[in-house]
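Q: What structure does this chain adopt?
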Amino acid sequence: MHVKANDTIIVLAGRDKGKQGKVMSADPKAGKVLVEGINVAKRHKKPRKQGEPGGIISKETPIYANKVMRICPKCNKQTRPAHRINKDGTKVRVCKKCDAEI
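A:
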């Protein structure tokens, strides 16, 4: 998966197209990511215990990872990260536009 938790992304398609947000969690098996402030759904919650509030709750729902793209922190452009293996054997993600380590 090309995005991970704590990455800053931009949405490429859907009703939130063009919005930016931070990835809270990623699910590679389902191919979905949970992004802060993106794809927000409203749920009606009934109070279950005495003193517990009810009402309409807004919560983020997962979005497909192929509809989002990573934003490079150095050049602020959207890019799908490339992978490079350093001399010491560690694998790092690299911006394809400015060649900076992500």
